[in-house]
Amino acid sequence: MKGTPLAEQMRIVLAGDRNSGKSSLMNNIFGREISIVAERPGTTTDPVTKSFELGALGAVAFSDTAGLDDDEHGIGELRRRRTEEVLQEGHVLLFVTPGDRPLSASEKALLEKARVRDRPLVVVYTFADRSPDLSKADALRGMPSVAVNNLSGSGVNDLRKLLLSVAEEIEPEISPVEGLVHEGDLVLLVTPIDLAAPRGRLILPQVETIRDLLDRDCGALVVKERELFSFYRALSVRPKVVICDSQVFSKVAADIPEDQPLTSFSILFGRKKGDLVTYIRGLRALSDVPPGARILVLESCSHHRQADDIGTVKIPRLFKQLVRMDAEFSFARDLPPEGELGKYFMVITCAGCMATRLKIVHRLNVLRRLGVHAINYGLFLAWANGLLPRALEPFPYEHSVFLEPAEDFRPCPGKRNGIQSVLADGA
């Protein structure tokens, strides 16, 4: 892996009305044509995202979006919805607005949403060669701002400097093993190599975990599940934790001592990208799934699905075997409209390794507001294999939440490695 993954880069989103100069600004920031520029309104129809090395910040992802006021024959609504999705991922909003015009209704609506989200916002006044509209300048007074002339490129360097200062306000995502290890620890990683694994590469969560361990001066021993038994017994140093692919939970648990701390990459990234407590609360709902419940399996990336795909095959099969045979499953890579989403009883979501934490947290907030339960792949598979609370033991707070008393919570009927799963309410 040569570059920082998009999901780990600070995301800067350009938003504004059609023909406000967003695409020209994007091109000026990069010093080359990234977005198509034309006098016809609505040239940018789908978000365009590119990475740029921004000084001390390193790789930063800029996203150009469709106009907020796009109303073209019904398609505009779809474009605005896609823009809204990208805005949810953004760490910084570049509000691109023509400096010579008063605020439009769509611009005012964007500013109100930005205020509620409480994320850094930078105002970019375009058409700086024209006389400024005083009412707009007065309305936006006090906000970090810069004036840019997209024809000459003046002001772009000032914008870059301003972004560097604004970035200090952004709280970075935690790293995969943050708080789990100390310098000198050995961590054993179990990484199956199957048909779904990219040829010549490891999957992203595995790569990021290895890099994080090396950055923390830890040792990382990487094995496949078939070699785990012999390698583990050859070790003279006990691993601080064993981290495995959730799909081999049962095999790994059987091959290591019962008191060896164990978790999965999916649970690591469920903590990094989302909220383990929310997923723990979702587990309790497994004891109360109604007949014919609709379950949505939600992924965050596109991948070639194999015959025994985890999201479309394995999880639905386990759910039907252990929870309700008559559950109805659907599959998506983005949240459906809220009117449709509210019809689901539960969402089982992937680890989110290809998405920003902001995007996953937004999804969870929407689900919480609609009363839809959420579970992470890794926690569901740990439950299905009878490995809870063991798989949460490396995370003291989440483990304690899991162990809080529950009035009525059905454990998984399975029993693995002598450990009976006793599920507790995380509410």
What does it look like?
- It is a single chain.
- The chain has 15 helices and 16 strands.
- It is α/β, with parallel strands linked by helices.
- The protein has helices spanning 22-30, 75-89, 105-117, 134-139, 156-166, 204-215, 228-234, 249-255, 265-273, 276-284, 310-322, 338-341, 357-370, 377-384, 396-402; strands at residues 10-15, 48-53, 59-64, 92-98, 121-126, 145-147, 186-190, 219-223, 241-244, 262-264, 294-298, 328-332, 346-349, 373-376, 415-416, 419-420.
- It starts with 9 loop residues before the first strand and ends in a 7-residue tail after the last strand.
Instruction: Kindly report the CATH topology of the largest domain.
Output: Rossmann fold
Mean pLDDT: 86
- What is the total tally of β strands? 16
Distance from first to last alpha carbon? 39 Å
Helix and strand content put the structural class at alpha/beta
Largest sheet: 6 strands, mixed
Count of folded domains = 3
> What would CATH call the homologous superfamily of the largest domain?
P-loop containing nucleotide triphosphate hydrolases
Strand order of the largest sheet: 2-3-1-4-5-6
Low-confidence stretches: 413-427
Estimated helix fraction: 25-40%
Shape: globular
SS summary, helix count:
15
Rg from alpha-carbon coordinates: 24 Å
- Percent of residues in beta strands: 15-25%
- The top level CATH class name of the largest domain: Alpha Beta
Could you say what the CATH architecture of the largest domain is? Answer: 3-Layer(aba) Sandwich
